[in-house]
Amino acid sequence: MLSRIQSDLDDVVFEKHEVAALETECRRAAAHTSNPLALRGLKKLLCMCEMASELGLSIYLLGP
Fold first, then answer.
1. From the CB of residue 19, how many other CB atoms can be counted at a distance below 10 Å?
2. What's this model's pTM, rounded to 2 decimal places?
3. Could you tell me if 29 and 43 are in contact, meaning their C-beta atoms sit under 8 angstroms apart?
4. 15-52 tens-digit pLDDT
5. What Rg value do the Cα atoms of the chain yield, rounded?
6. Which of 9, 22, 34, 45 allows an S-S link to 1, with CB 3.0 to 4.6 Å?
7. For 1-64, where are the E strands, in sequence order?
8. What are the residue boundaries of the structural domains of the chain, listed by start?
9. Considering only CA atoms, which of 31, 64, 47, 19 is closest in space to residue 2?
């Protein structure tokens, strides 16, 4: 799932049925890194996952 995010210039979509898998992958990645920048990004993605799960929504990451 995380491998879809290649650049901040590309659009990425995680459909609502993929959000739980994305959240699991983010938690695993966060447990295996100490890089502060990576942890900050993963925390933001986890927040998006939690909100999307609660509301039954997909996640859209749009480039400029």
1. 21
2. 0.92
3. no
4. 999 999 999 999 999 999 999 999 999 999 999 999 99
5. 11
6. 22
7. 12-14, 59-61
8. 2-61
9. 19
